[in-house]
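Weekly modeling sync, notes
Attendees: S.R. (lead), two postdocs, one rotation student

Agenda item 3: backlog of single-chain predictions. S.R. asked that every request posted to the team notebook include the full sequence so nobody has to chase files. The rotation student volunteered to paste the first one in as an example of the format we agreed on. Action items at the bottom.

Example entry:
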Amino acid sequence: MSLSAIMSTATSGMMAAQTGLRVTSDNIANVNTAGYVRKTISQSNLISNGMGVGVSIDAIKRATDRFLQSASLNASSDSGAAAAKSDTLNSAQQLFGDPSSDSSFFTTLDNVFSAFSAAQDTPSSMLLRGQALSNVDTFLSESSRITSSISKLGKDADTRVSADVDQVNDLLSQIDGLNSDITRAKVAGADSTGAENVQSGLIDQLSKLMNVQVSPRAAGGVILRSTEGLNLAGDGAAKITYQTSATANSYLTVQLATGSVNPTPLNISSGEIKGLMDLRNADLPNLSDQLGEFTSRAAEAINKASNAASAVPAPSVLTGRNTGLDAQSALSGFTGKTTIALTDSSGVIQRRVDVDFDAGTMTVNGAAGPTFTPANFIAQLNTALGGQGSAGFSSGALSLSGTGGLGVAVADDPTTPSSKIGKGFSQYFGLNDIIRTDGYSPYETGLQPTDLNGFTGTMTIRLTDSDGGRIRDVNVDMPVGGTMQDMMDALNSRATGVGMYGQFNLNAKGQISFVSNTTSPVTMSVVADTTERGTGGPSASQLFGIGPAERSTRGSKFYVNTAMEQNPALIPFAKLDTTQTVGGSAALAVGDGRGALALAKAGETTLDFSAAGDASAATMTVSRYSSQFAGSVARQSANASSRKDAADAVSSEVQSQRQSEEGVNLDEELINLTTYQQAFNASARLIQATKDMFDTLTGILR
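Predicted structure, as returned to the notebook:
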């Protein structure tokens, strides 16, 4: 080997050692730098004619582990989703208060029943009556406050998702831009690890917001793909858009840098954005829906007792709630018997109409009266009242009134009580409700498949998959002049309805529910609803509670009967004695507290609770449902907190392993430093020896 070859070999060794020293120095200098990945050098032998002629630095690389990086990114995404859910559900749980405290929401309902219990001993006390109504108002106000606060949490989640999506787009743009810098450095043989570290840090930030798949580019840098393989960065940055709606489920779309100009649905399975969208689309509406169901049924139990009773003296006017139906539809389907009595100020019956819905007949003051059908019931009842009272039906509400100072009291037959969908005549129409509502919950209309649906207009329904991705929006036109069965057929059409993904069902109580029919659950929400029942009537989503937007707001729509609030004497604390005849003894007595006792025991009334939120349909008392609901709220918060702790623990462990692999170990770097120093010295000595040999040979030639 020539002296020049030896000199070249030694020089390459010195340059390699010098590069190693520089890399080692960088590692030591960045031992505490967050996100820094230690560098290593890749070197190989230079061979000429089968002989080693030096060493070559092939590349300066980062000591990364693709498996640990992938595990770390996935764990970070899971942690981000769990943290978002835990924080928000904990805030939601705090809205209800501590169930064991006197100030919790569930205690306010117990206070209602306690107040009625206290009032039943002295039913004439205006102070106790006023306290009972005040407790009812507190319960309803708390329900409204919690419903509004949960809605605000949903809007906050919406805002955070929008901000996160903007951040994601910025990160994708930066990550994609760094690919060019990394490629240029690699082509030029320069150190690209600085840009790669910055890019890795940006990917770590991105993974907290949404899960991505990372793969290396052949020319340097990375390619980022979504769960379903859409190219988000690497060959141009994609742009993600958050599609939100005031009434329907929100979803993500992505405009790819290459390919179709139309936005593509984007599904993500973890990350803070996923957690927030789950909260906004499902968790919070479900919680609010169950709250609405609880408040609805508590109001139903109280109103059931109040409609079976009467004030003393009886009020001159009883005005029911808006059923959302026309008179014929509302009056169809009743069975059993009820009594409508007109009483004087002393509680003595002056006119009595006994209605037999099974026979379709009325008995007036004990004598045979007019027959009726649902279509002419109001007219025939007015005939039966004989000018001493009147009946009317307007804007979906039934009203009864007495004339000449007479009051109106309604009571069902004790042996064959009137009933429609399990509610008595007065209760169904809400003639003597203590609690009123601006809505239609619990959405039990009593409409049957053969009844006319009465709707015009169009409903736009959105179908969403389990990952929150939009499947499609369908526009369903109401079959004008058709029956309820025709309406159900239109909703369930496979061509123009939801039939490909689920089915709407109409139960025996005239309540509509949606069930997914696919292996992968599909959820339904209402984008827009221009339907209307009759002229000025409710939309289909309002009347039947279709979609989370309608159901999740119902807890804020209840209030105390204004007339009773202004005059507590109108609270129905007595019961009409149906054994009394016209002109006989008083059928309503001052001091009768049987109605108040029934109100005090309303919490023990067994009712059919519909499926709401995460809770299945059940039959139980209001008090028991209250206990289970309180436990469910606490469990949701606790479970979310446990999942957050578990996700954080996994993320911390994986990150620790990744740091152990990618981080700087000072002991290891000191060994490398010594090794490269010795290699440098050895190369230097070889150069010196070569120089000495060259000088000796030169001297000989002289």
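Discussion: group reviewed the output briefly. The chain has 16 helices and 27 strands.
Action items: rotation student to repeat for the remaining queue; S.R. to check formatting next week.
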